[in-house]
Design a protein that fits this description.
Layout (H helix, E strand, L loop, with lengths): L8 E5 L4 E4 L8 E4 L2 E4 L21 E4 L4 E5 L1 H11 L14 E4 L4 H8 L4 E4 L14 E3 L6 E3 L1 E3 L7 H16 L8 E3 L2 E7 L5 E6 H4 L10 H6 L21
Antiparallel strand pairs: 1-2, 1-6, 3-4, 5-6, 7-8, 9-10, 11-14, 12-13, 13-14
């Protein structure tokens, strides 16, 4: 569970369609409740009081007051603070959980066809990282014909980006049985590259435009996190599903 302090609790504004701190809410703004919504009619400061924070495993949303206002313990705030303490810069790239990036790059139409979607949308998980798992490339297993996701554990991100790419390519070639695989590369007009996952050891083969460049889903790179000794604390792709409550 996220141990969010009351300062970090956010209210869901149905007006702004986003989570907001209490101080960010405006008079007249609508906030989500368990029965619908309520209107903020006034604001006034109150003296500080000792409070006790309720923590429930993998549950981050709570109902407060008799009205039942929906409040969220913001894990991404704690992730930012943790990474700052580790000396990581650009922690603003840890996004609001549940926020979505719409990809409109040059190959967006090709991706829509490939994934049978009306839009290419990347959701940020409960910890503020982009979930690229729906767009991981797959290859056919030469033995049983099953699809293999190009998600590989290289042990640890070491050296340069290229050395990590080489390690990932070596593993991918061995499990797919194709010695010609070497990424970054293009498949059917779509460029693919390896994404460094925030767990500090997993590489995911995804469309390049989603991962970096002008149209990408901006994020704090897994290699940057690993280089500061913080990667091992974050869940690996197989476990990220438990942190997608805000993307459902």
């Amino acid at each position: 569970a996220c141990r969010g302090k009351p300062l970090n609790r956010r209210y869901y504004s149905t007006t702004a369609q986003d989570w907001r701190l209490a101080g960010e809410l405006a008079i007249g703004e609508q906030v989500l409740t368990h029965t619908g919504s309520a209107t903020l009619t006034g604001k006034r400061p109150a003296p500080a009081q000792r409070v006790y924070n309720l923590e429930v495993q993998e549950v981050h949303n709570f109902l407060v007051s008799g009205v039942g206002v929906v409040v969220h313990n913001t894990c991404h705030i704690e992730v930012r603070n943790f990474l700052k303490d580790k000396g990581v810069n650009n922690t603003h790239l840890i996004k609001t959980p549940g926020s979505k990036h719409i990809y409109n790059g040059p190959d967006a139409d090709a991706l829509k066809v490939k994934y049978n979607k009306n839009k290419i949308e990347i959701c940020y998980d409960d910890l503020g990282f982009p979930d690229f798992s729906p767009f991981v490339e797959r290859f056919t297993n030469p033995i049983n014909g099953n699809l293999i996701e190009a998600v590989v554990d290289i042990g640890s991100f070491e050296g340069s980006h290229q050395s990590d790419y080489n390690a990932a390519n070596t593993i991918l070639r061995s499990i797919v049985g194709d010695d010609n695989l070497n990424f970054p590369a293009t498949i059917s007009g779509i460029n693919y590259t390896w994404h460094h996952h925030q767990d500090g050891k997993t590489m995911m083969l995804v469309p390049s435009g989603l991962n970096h460049g002008q149209y990408a889903a901006t994020h704090l790179g897994g290699k940057t996190i690993h280089n500061k000794g913080a990667g091992s604390v974050f869940p690996s792709p197989a476990d990220v599903g438990s942190y997608l409550k805000n993307c459902e």
